[in-house]
Amino acid sequence: GTGFFSLPLPSAGSTAGSIERRLDTVRSVCHIAQKRLIACFQGQHGTDPDKRHKKLPLTALAQNMQEGSVQLSDETLLGKMLDTCGDAENKLAMELSQHEVQIEREVLDPLYLLTETEIPNIQKQRKQLAKLVLDWDSARGRYNQAHKTSGTNFQVHPSKIESLKEEMDEAGNKVEQCKDQLAADMYNFVSKEGEYARCFVMVSTSPL
């Protein structure tokens, strides 16, 4: 399919180009979204609901209301209302802290995995493939040169040619293995487009 995350599968001849640019763009967009989302939090990022709840401005407001209620006594109308409203604000603060933790778990964690693990791993695999292709080219060059030389007056021992052929074949196998792994990683990346899209849907439907 096509979409923001969709990428062409790699070939031995492809290097950085459009695939690298797309990976960089996806990583940049999601990384900035993470930072902006964290900036929207009222609680401390990375803490559990209880610790986060204690630090929320809403919690401080609730405590202030309840302290005011004690000072005025709950026998007065204002005192009773401050106590009731303080309790309500405290519950809202707890709901907010739980919601922020949920956003971290269901939105920030997947995006962090994408930007800091999955995309960097694909980029490393692409660099590794480029290196292996060069190694393969060198091995083929050595084998072809030895093969040509063996047909001239300068004889190359057959075992040497066989050794170079094995080296060339092994280098070729490494290229194919790396290509297969890279293709699998990229297919996995593309197949998760819907999951990453749902992260942003959740943010828009459950605003902070």
Outline the fold blueprint:
Blueprint: H1 17-40, H2 49-55, H3 57-72, H4 77-149, H5 158-191, H6 193-205
Helix pairs in contact: 1-4, 2-4, 3-4, 4-5, 4-6
Task: Explain what you see.
The protein has 208 residues and is mainly α. It has a single domain, classed as Substrate Binding Domain Of Dnak, Chain:A, Domain 2. Helices cover 80% and strands 0% of the residues. It contains 6 helices and no strands. The protein has helices at residues 17-40, 49-55, 57-72, 77-149, 158-191, 193-205. α2 packs across α4. The longest helix is centred in the middle third of the chain and has 73 residues, at 77-149. 20% of the residues are buried. Mean pLDDT is 86; it is low at 1-16.
Enumerate how many helices there are, as a single number. 6
| Cα shape | rod-shaped
N-to-C terminal Cα separation, in Å? 32 Å
Let me know the number of strands. 0
What is the fold-level CATH name, i.e. the topology? Substrate Binding Domain Of Dnak, Chain:A, Domain 2
Name of the CATH class: Mainly Alpha
Quick check: average pLDDT? 86
Low-confidence stretches: 1-16
- Structural domains: how many: 1
Percent helix: over 70%
Keywords: GTPase activation
InterPro entries: AH/BAR_dom_sf, BAR_dom, RHG17/44/SH3BP1-like
Organism: Athene cunicularia
GO molecular function, one term: GTPase activator activity
